[in-house]
Amino acid sequence: MGNDPFGSAALRRIEWLTLLLGGVGAAWAGWRWGWRGSVGLAVGAVLSWVNFRWLKGSVQAFGRAATAQAGSQHVRVPTIAYFKFFGRFALLLGILYVILTRSWLPVIPVLAGLFASAAAVVLALVYELVSTGVRQDAGGS
After folding, report:
1. How confident is the model at residue 6 (pLDDT cuts 50, 70, 90)?
2. Domain that holds residue 87
3. Is it the case that residue 141 has pLDDT exceeding 60?
4. How many domains, in total, are found in the chain?
5. Which of 24, 76, 109, 127 has the CA that lies 20 to 30 A from 39?
6. What single string gives the DSSP state of each residue in 94-114?
7. How far apart are CA 39 and CA 25, in angstroms?
């Protein structure tokens, strides 16, 4: 398994699946709602991706600090980890406010794009379950 922390492959998979689903969704939204719908879904998917990246980074920083403190080392959590953890809410709320009140982007595609990372998590989970089952079958378990 190398020196990758547990779950890092799944986290990378979720990141690229979020962008892939956003791209596929934007193409579909372009067919369904026109170019504005396509741009709206793409904007929502990118926001979803940024939200996931910031959440992942801050949780990993908190986890490293907790692990170090359990080993009786005193480690400070970087200020940027707090900014990313709480700032993602401000970023999403601020951008959503502008999109919903002042933008020419349709609301439904933007909101649909925001669910790209949730859909990516589900797909990554299904992949993990299926690949684990295949590995167990190949191993004779």
Report:
1. low
2. 22-130
3. no
4. 1
5. 127
6. HHHHHHHHH-SS-HHHHHHHH
7. 10
